[in-house]
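Bumping my old thread because nobody answered last time. Still need a sequence for this structure:
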């Protein structure tokens, strides 16, 4: 999925639909959910990998609402099976990924997105409240040399269903850390260890 030079990145470039969606998410996360967040530390230009812990389906909504750059996520493919969520994800140029195996195609699309100077959102745990860190993050860091921006969400949890989670008011808090810069030769253990440590420190 190579993005063209005209694909929206900064808020000033967003389409009417994208601006409307962002305003809707901002209102929902700030006023309905009562969420709070610190100023984002994502660079104003250039590629970046936004790495956050994953506690509920609300997480990407808070990350989008708290930023004025387009964030494209690696998203479980099953969310694209729903027409409503698929339309929303397409507005952020997100990338469907299979979780039952290593999805090389999705990783290649993510690398191209970073090569185009975009922001990629990723949940290193690979799923909500999972304990095993995925190595795709380290591969993307080595391939793109993009900085990793750690973020941490607390005060939210996944309910019995996605709908129940969206309806339940939880007052989450989102914090951003200092961007991490890795050498292209850094091994996976170093990248993953430093990233997860930075995320945990924000708790």
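Sorry it took so long. Here it is:
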């Amino acid at each position: 999925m190579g993005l063209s030079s005209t694909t929206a990145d900064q808020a000033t470039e967003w389409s009417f639909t994208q601006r409307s969606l962002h305003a809707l998410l901002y209102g929902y996360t700030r006023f309905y959910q009562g969420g709070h967040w610190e100023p984002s530390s994502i660079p104003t230009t250039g590629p970046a990998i936004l790495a956050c812990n994953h506690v509920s389906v609300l997480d990407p909504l808070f990350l989008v609402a708290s930023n004025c750059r387009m964030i494209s996520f690696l998203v479980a493919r099953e969310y694209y099976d729903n027409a409503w969520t698929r339309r929303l994800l397409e507005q952020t140029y997100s990338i469907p990924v299979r979780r039952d195996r290593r999805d090389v195609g999705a990783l290649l699309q993510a690398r191209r997105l970073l090569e185009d100077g975009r922001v990629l959102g990723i949940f290193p745990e690979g799923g909500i409240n999972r304990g095993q860190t995925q190595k795709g993050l380290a591969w993307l860091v080595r391939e793109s040399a993009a900085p990793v921006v750690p973020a941490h969400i607390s005060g939210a949890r996944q309910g019995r269903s996605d709908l129940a989670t969206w309806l339940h008011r939880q007052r989450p808090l989102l914090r951003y850390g200092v961007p991490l810069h890795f050498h292209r030769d850094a091994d996976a253990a170093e990248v993953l260890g430093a990233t997860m440590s930075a995320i945990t420190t924000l708790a």
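The radius of gyration is 16 Å. Let me know if any region looks off to you.
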